[in-house]
Amino acid sequence: MILETERYQKADISAYLPLIESSLAFFDEHYQMLARSRGAAVWTDDHKYVFYPSSAAETYKMAYNSTTLVCGLKAVIEQLLCLDDTYTPDRARW
Length: 94
Known about the structure:
Elements: H1 2-9, H2 17-37, E1 54-56, E2 60-63, H3 67-81
Antiparallel strand pairs: 1-2
């Protein structure tokens, strides 16, 4: 919603950028830790991230790469990377 506010209203969201990036960092670190603790791979053989364990639409537990999780992260990261140079997201990381 913060990214949409910037996109539609051109509002200054610099104060929220740390929140957005720390939220993404949480997913990155949390899922790597959970996968490793359960003996699952963090990356596939073709270098794609594995989100495990996840839940699909809050009903199916212990899912791999649930569509809701992947689509949500993809949408946020794409919008984050589309921000103009006024903002300084860690583009290399995302």
